[in-house]
Amino acid sequence: MCNYEANIWSEPTEPETLDINTAAVAGTVTMGIGYAQLEELCAAMNVPCMSEPTYVEYRENLIDDFNKTAMKNMKMTGEVEKHLALERNDVINGIPYITVVADGSWMKRSYGNAYNSLSSIEAIIGYHTKKILFVGVRNKFCAICDVAERNGIEPKAHKCYKNFDRNASSIRMESDVIAEGFKCSLEMHGLIFKTVIADGDSSVYQTILDNRPYCEHMVAVKK
């Protein structure tokens, strides 16, 4: 025997490289699938799959990291938009103002008659950078809360993503998120969203006007 010993790792050990479990869960999140699909894929490759509780733990940690990264990128976009606005001398009361593009998407298509989607996502994008300044999600449904309600029991402790009235029209989700983005633009970016470019949904623009996000500066949003 040569008395030589070597360590062979089953996954990369470099700190900048994702471990196999984190990479697998990150892949499911970015593809829009879940644990059941990951389990089937691993079975097809004859690869042991992590347990569902382990998957949930990794997913929750990743979601926090995704949120932090998204916020960092949006802040960076805000700084670029602010710099460009100052170069153009687009300033009101010492505050740079910009033009933004706003739009949303629903989990379920309505085709003009059944506005009952359970989820939606909306974004506000800088017109000049074409990058995201604000993003928001609205959910009417939480599986854990729903099961508990149907069984007449208190839901177990969990991170609940339900943040919109189940009985409200889903079309209101878009205007609710976009108005929130306008209301926090000063605190988040130090910017006034003075002009908005959007589709023909007049309720979005009206909701922005009703919320008067820049009333202290005597600025009315235009479209």
From TrEMBL:
Pfam families membership = Mutator (PF20700)
Query: InterPro entries of this UniProt entry?
Result: Mutator_transp_dom (IPR049012)
Tell me where on the tree of life, at the top rank, the source sits: Eukaryota
Q: Which residues form the Mutator-like transposase domain?
A: 1-222
* Name of protein: Mutator-like transposase domain-containing protein
Q: What is the lineage of its organism?
A: Eukaryota, Metazoa, Ecdysozoa, Arthropoda, Hexapoda
